[in-house]
What does this fold into?
Amino acid sequence: MSAVEEQRPIGYGRLKRKEDARFIRGQGTYVDDVQLPGMLHGAILRSPVAHARIASIDTSAALAHPKVHAVITGRDLEAQGLSWMPTLSADVQAVLATDKVRFQGQEVAFVIADDRYSARDALELIDVDYDTLPAVVNARKALDPDAPVIRDDLEGKTDNHIFDWESGDRAATDAVFARADVVVSQEMLYPRVHPAPMETCGAVADYDRVSGKLTLWSTTQAPHAHRTLYALVAGLPEHKIRVISPDIGGGFGNKVGIYPGYVCAVVGSIVTGKPIKWVEDRSENLMATSFARDYVMRGSIAATSEGRILGVQVDVIADHGAFNTTAQPTRYPAGFFHVFTGSYDLEAAHCSVRGVYTNKAPGGVAYACSFRITEAVYLVERMVDMLARELDADPAELRLRNFIRPEQFPYACRTGWVYDSGDYERTMRKALAIAGYDELRREQVERRARGELMGIGVGFFTEAVGAGPRRHMDILGLGMADGAELRVHPTGKAQLGISVQTQGQGHETTFAQIVAEELGIPPEDIEVVHGDTDNTPFGLGTYGSRSTPVSGAATAVVARKVREKARIVAGAMLEVAPEDLAWERGRWFVRGDPEQGATIQEIAMAAHGSLELPEGVEGGLDSETVYNPPNLTFPFGAYLCVVDVDPGTAAVRVRRFVAVDDCGTRINPIIIEGQVHGGLTDGVGMALMELIAFDEDGNCLGGSLMDYLIPTALEVPDWETDFTVTPSPHHPIGAKGIGESATVGSPPTIVNAVVDALAPYGVRHMDMPCTPSRVWEAMQGNAKPPQ
Amino acid sequence: MQVAMSVNGEERGAEVEPRLLLVHYLRDVLGLTGTHWGCDTSNCGTCVVLMDGEPVKSCTLLAATAAGHEITTVEGMERDGVLDPVQQGFHEEHGLQCGFCTPGMMLTARALLDRNANPTDHEIRTAISGQICRCTGYATIVRSIRWAAEHANEGARA
Amino acid sequence: MQVPSPFEYERATSVEHALELLARLGPDARLLAGGHSLLPMMKLRLASPEYLIDIDPLAGELGYVREQDGEVRIGAMTRHRELLESELLARRVAIFTDAERVIADPVVRNRGTIGGALCQADPAEDLSAVCAAADARVVVRGRDGERVLDMRAFHRGAYETAVEDGEMVTEIRVPLHPGAGSAYEKVERRVGDWAVVAAGAAVRLSDGTIEHAAIALAAVGGDVTSPAAAEALAGRPPSEELFAEAAGIAAAGCSPVTDQRGSAEYKRHVAAELTLRALRRATARALREES
It folds into this structure.
């Protein structure tokens, strides 16, 4: 590749991002940047307590505020049948509370005023009488017989149980555990954390009373799915709803669900006839929108004394908060947690997951978790590390010995997933080589002799991303497939419409590169349109690392459709049979006579011109498709982390982090590396500091960025990233998805490193976050779960 | 009350409530929406602008206090169609993803380079340590600022 | 985004003007210095003053770090960043420099002031401990004149100072002694977080013995200073054993509580560890100063 082509590749390569131009000038348009004439501002009054019956709500003083236009309560919504809305997990959630409040921060009333300051002032004027009830805070105790019933709105509900779900073969697992030489068990908590994108959630709703059309700008990762849900929730005809997801200031799963605030903005616009803006503040974001994790996992691993892993088993209590709003495929109430067998070839596995209600904010699937694969990988990678300790084996060696081998792919794992491809040993060896693993272990011996606490953490993960296929995977009956629509204009410039929505992942660049690779049209000649339901094809959106696996595939397929149309047109132009044409990037030419050919631009003009078009082409080259993935894709990676723990203060410093990722075909390495860097930083956050904690009354202790700590530039090292390439055999371009790999793979790697550092103190496990105080307590033999 | 200040070299005044925060003055009164906000507690730094050349958190500053001072926002970085090398650096080195923290990061970088033309990586990391980026993992931001230091006199059009 | 309640706004153009406004507007008025403690509290509506007197224009009049009469005199509106960059403090009272490196973040340090921090008196705030360890005195001025208080008199506990209605802090005076050294150590969960625990130490050496010492702790409740630890050090030659003994006394005397930043047990442990480290560095600096 020439230097110029490396800088400006037509196709895959290190193309600098197209979307940067507006962002570096401050010209992005985020929801709070939307200004409409006559626009009013909404603010939400929230519950100050975790569990209480609402005795009364007095809004008269707020209504008397000169700048207030309306105050909406649950009773007002009830009259229109809107006080409750369906969740993405077949439950219902209160839009504005009518009977009880069920978590601190729950929505109680919505004020509409001239400006955001007045709306905020008016909240102080609403008087709510609460009869406080005991709160259920600890998920382990949610099913105690004397636990208060949170969801007494559900008919016949007498406990806080949501679901029981299992996967794998319990009897076979019991059998391998019975004959195992070694069994290691551990209860571990993957604590409640929050995606906390820098932009909070918000919406601008504009309902046109004349046309009956609702235009809704909102922070959504799934505009099309939202449109359908609004149609179902609000009873508006779907063709009269336009959802626009403008620039999004980070999503990470936080912007998948529909929040009461969006619905309130819509209702407010319908009621007042004016556009309504509602943007939550940071406390609202942290206290009320979709949290992540909160899995109590009791795991066991069985092996032979030679270090052959036989099986894994885990029982989970899943804290879903006050409403089951998790966003995941309908058939999988625990998401894809059952990939918890990880990257290992073992004989048997079983997991059971019990979902419970607590008096905490609803959610659970968010924060780049790939539908609970974060929890699954954390469990198995901690268990394997504990096994290594038990066997006195090297944790890297133990993994190498038990990996699924390349020739075993496609590999059907014990819980039913079919891993598409992998070469784990190659990736692992590469990571060890980059890190200088043997040298690090020698250094560790020397440091330990001096009383220093250096830890080396090894981790490996396999992800399962890119949901569907649609026959297995749907959300509220909407199959998980995605559309693409490619228009090629007469001059050969193109417009690609996609159903997924970027929150910073660089779709405008990556997807243009896919088209460029397939058609030879330069990326700068391709406009990628997304985030507007009126102007893009239907599809389920961006989360679970599904954009490239699903929408990227749709884009390649639709580009190939255009290419085939172009072949027919080129045949007519060159007066040869289409079969006699061959393709080189950007051009069809006559086989055996390469001088004779037509570029895609010439063909586009001809397709719109006066040329008599042959059968199979009606005019133009435009095409569309819907891609229904035949299977998930299975990216993987080997991670290695070096930490130093201060023996006096127990503060942990991440000294090095090596990440070797395999996401199959690499479309834009710059963007891939960026995705990995971001995920690794999430990992440092979760492993060392991030936590949404509660006191025993259910008060949220992580409700601001003073308390919910996110890493700064000084807590993270200069990442050392590399890669291997094992293309997906079933994906049109062999790509696998990379958005969440590092968030999934890094937390256990860091915890493994911390626990390794604390080995001289006999520490076998500690739960995240590894704050100085918690690490010190582990060193005293007193490790306990947070909160 | 009446406030007036220089914003990106232009004198801008308006009648405002005393409690109006500078970030809302810039965004809602002047329509300069390149300055963002992301928290209520001065922790996130997405609202950073320059006041008299130094980075400040515009969510923790009254417009009234800023009156009479010189404010620079991201909209003022490009001059006569030529990008600030910091802006160019963020593009060259993939220093942004969602773009939300980017204006604040770039302005802090500008102030840093004005005082220290050749900062070390640690000095860069320290300078931006009051600002959170949830996307990039910071390494590319550090590289972007270093790029700007190494190309101090080159403007460009991204 | 959270926003403050309405208030009346006044802008003071001089110390005299500020005092006049305080007298006129009464106890419902608050001074606004750098704003990084008060404005967040107002946004969260934990504070809703009726009048705000903006003293930002006093940044010139009260923004200085200078040596005078054997003291370092620091104007109350001196910003954290100016303290951090003060060559005089780094050379003579390095505990300020140590602390300023870890107070909040660089952007906040561009606005926050020493006077504002001391008057806020947050229990996890660093400069109260720094000033206490450095035996600083605080100048509090009212319309009838000024009072000069040592830190024990000034700092009355969490969020409480000796500043009365109608008064304001104008200056901090830090004594300079030959053979003195000081240092500050802090554990935080993350850069920019409030202290889990912090410890400051100052020692004065003379003929190979500790002539005078002061220890102050932040974020562990109770008294900021530890006179018992200081007493244990005085008159004895510096040694690791002595430091450990004093650190143990300081830790035993503090009253930490368990919270999100850490357990009481940990805080007590780390109070000793940080005191020990601060004493070590303070002494090393004093020795350099002596030589």
